[in-house]
Amino acid sequence: MTQVNIYEAKTNLSKLIRQLQDHEEDVIVIANNGTPVAQITRTPKTRERKSPFGAARDLWDLPEDFDEIFDALDSEIGPLFETV
Fold first, then answer.
1. Tens digit of pLDDT per residue, the chain (84 long)?
2. Would 57 disulfide with which of 11, 18, 42, 51, CB 3.0-4.6 Å?
3. Is the dihedral of CA 59, 62, 64, 70 positive or negative?
4. CATH numbers and ranges of domains, the chain
């Protein structure tokens, strides 16, 4: 954990963010006159939503909003196959 004052954080923000990205630091604390007031942390990676077609999707030229279209159609068609 590194602690920097506000002026240093403002002046070196890009450098501090790069340290987080490169996993050199986990947390950077920003202090005002030596008193911690804020912290910068690395955000966790988010998982991308997988297409229902998995890797095969890359083989076809599908529109960007295909997943939304598929979900809408699935909600309309799905009830037709439910047992009575």
1. 899 999 999 999 999 999 998 888 889 999 999 999 999 998 877 666 665 666 665 666 767 787 788 788 877 787 777 765
2. 51
3. negative
4. 2-41 (3.40.1620), 49-79 (no CATH)
